[in-house]
Amino acid sequence: MQKLSDILEEVWTALTIGSTTSRDPFHTPTVATVRHGKPVSRTVVLRFVDPALSVLGFNTDLRSAKCQDLENNPAIAWHFYGRGRKVQLRIRGTASIHSDDDVARAAWDEVTPLGRRCYGQSPGPGTPTERAGIALPDLADLESDDPSVLALCRSNFGTVRCTVEEIEWLHLRFQGHQRALFNRADSAWTGRWVAP
């Protein structure tokens, strides 16, 4: 039987791989926030993992409803499922939104021109429209670093950082599923087995 400490290390390794490998199933987790007392979920792209600090992150348009959700209630839940790994992760933590600090600047520097283009869409995410399409900045302007277009896109860009407080690991196996729960307090993790 695996040791709990080894499982936790494997979890952080898998998350790190997911943050940098677009075809990895952990690259696109589901994230849930709380809106008017009810859970709201959506798929995001995992962009940041820091195992030492127990932090996960994704980028977002500051005009999106999830930003308002997190401003009102920073509780956040993540769901990952790796079909090849036969592992499900349910992660809970506390989120913070960064828009005009070193964290946001570092995240923005990693975004490609094509990715930056999404933050210049008009109207903003969730706005009712008369038609399906939206207006996007010209990609050529972003590739040429047009200052006015870059400034527009950058003004809508934010990045979310989640301090992880709980990880639930479920391994699906023909021989019998295994499940473990890890909690973090004062920068230290503790784990225990729970019935699957």
Question: What's the alpha carbon Rg, rounded to whole Å?
Answer: 18 Å
The portion of residues assigned to helices is: 25-40%
Overall pLDDT metric: 95
Shape: elongated
What is the helix tally?
6
The ordered H/E elements are: HEEEEHEEHHHHEEE
Major sheet: size, sense and barrel closure?
9 strands, antiparallel
Short description:
The protein has helices at residues 4-20, 65-72, 102-109, 113-118, 139-143, 147-155, and strands at residues 30-35, 38-43, 48-50, 55-61, 75-82, 87-98, 157-171, 178-185, 188-194.
Description:
By secondary structure, the chain is of the alpha+beta class. Helix content is 27%, strand content 37%. Strands 1, 2, 3, 4, 5, 6, 7, 8 and 9 form a nine-stranded antiparallel β-sheet that branches. Strand 3 and strand 4 form a beta hairpin. It is elongated, with a radius of gyration of 18 Å. The two termini are 15 Å apart. The model has no long low-confidence stretch (mean pLDDT 95).
